[in-house]
Amino acid sequence: MDSKFCRVFFTLSALTFSITFSHQQDEQKILLVSFDGFRWDYIYRVPTPHFDYIMEYGVHVKKVTNVFVTTTYPNHYTLVTGLYPESHGIIANDMYDSTLNETFSLEDMKIYDSEFWEDAIPIWITNQIAGHNTGAMMWPGTDVKIHEEFPTYYMPYNESVSFEDRVAKVIEWFKLKKPINLALLYWEDPDEMGHNLGPDNPLMDPVISDIDSKLGYLIKELMKEKLWNTVNLIITSDHGMTQCSGEKIIELDQYVNPNDYFLIDHSPVRAILPKKGKFDMIYAALNNAHPNLTVYKKEDIPERFHYKHHHRIQPILIMADKGWTIIQNRSSTFMLGNHGYDNEFSDMHPLFLAHGPAFKKNISKDSMNSTDLYPLLCHILDIPPMPHNGSLANVEELLSEIVPIEIPHSRTTPQNDVNLSIYKVQSYAYFMGVFLGSVIVIVFLLVFLKHLTHSQMPTIQERNAEIAQPLLWS
Ligand SMILES: [Zn+2]
């Protein structure tokens, strides 16, 4: 009888403690969001109360140096591998691989050949090897089979799926019986409108406001689903955008015969593969052809670009100055806004904000590299990083020293329309959980002591056995 009582007592106590304090032991969760083409300074251009809210209660990095070329696929793959494009192999949105004799093209969505992606092991694979689940919502590369793996849950790319539906699915993944600890969420704007309108166009203002509303929607849904305090939300982007002009055009046909080379990738950085025996002629014709065009032989590409040591990088690389467009001839398409330029240009830089238990509050940091995100993600998720080009030391000041326990706080409502009442209800529920759990433990303890006092004392041997038993279960 005594033995049974003790077993029940210890089991219930252990269970209660484990439920009550499970928040401390929970694994960290991350929701990484990319708003494609969201330039770092868009948040200063129009009121963005939801971005402000993240900054006030989380961290903000003012200058994020992304990787060259400053285009979508190379940068998104860097964010999830921590590698420069010359190491992860997605060196452009459009590529030609002479070894495979295959092309890769974002424009035609010809991106599903696994071999293009397999120079690196992206974070979702490492996360899954460590025994966790990943959810990927249209993040570039996540619907490609890489090293025989897909993310645990993912949705194939389909631009017609609304932001709200993408958020709903991500939240569902966080709440599954076997939940995810890492979600990757991608949204196409403001990149698309930035290309069409040009970033200097006042019509971009409502586009930026719309992204802020979308962020507000995401925050509210996380609060409603009681995930706001436990999920580390990271908001970033792949690149910025700069204004282009019909006056700033470089026409290649004016300098070289189009039959003498293959033109790969799009403005403003274009890869040139000369036909057999044409290299010297092409290089000589393009070099110094235009004051706003820089021409590199592959071996002369500056080290700071980290863009030399991969066989998909072509023998000649041509790069336009900021705001200039390289086209074949006047029949080619032209965009009012573009990116891809030198990653030293601030217009090419994305934003970086984060909020959650792993991050400090109201901290602003001057700079980081986009390669630093990967070791940061691995550190928070407590998974071993693969070799990378980033530095955890460069960003660890963003992290809270001890992952804080969720404590209800009574900060004032920020200047926005985020419904904080949901947040307060959630915090209150947690506080009540801790309180009730503690009461149950104390009551059990009192009943147990009373029981011991009133029952016949067992022998020393029996007592030791009974005390030892629960320890064996724990
Ligand atoms: Zn992009």
UniProtKB/TrEMBL annotation:
SUPFAM superfamilies hit by this protein: Alkaline phosphatase-like
Membrane topology note: Single-pass membrane protein
Entry keyword set: Glycoprotein, Hydrolase, Membrane, Metal-binding, Signal, Transmembrane, Transmembrane helix, Zinc
Location in or out of the cell: Membrane
One GO molecular-function entry: zinc ion binding
Pfam families tied to this protein: Phosphodiest
Entry GO CC: membrane
CDD domains assigned: Enpp
Transmembrane segments: 428-449
N-terminal signal peptide: 1-24
Domain of life: Eukaryota
Required cofactor names: Zn(2+)
Family per similarity comment: Belongs to the nucleotide pyrophosphatase/phosphodiesterase family.
Protein name, UniProt field: Ectonucleotide pyrophosphatase/phosphodiesterase family member 5
Organism from which the protein derives: Vombatus ursinus
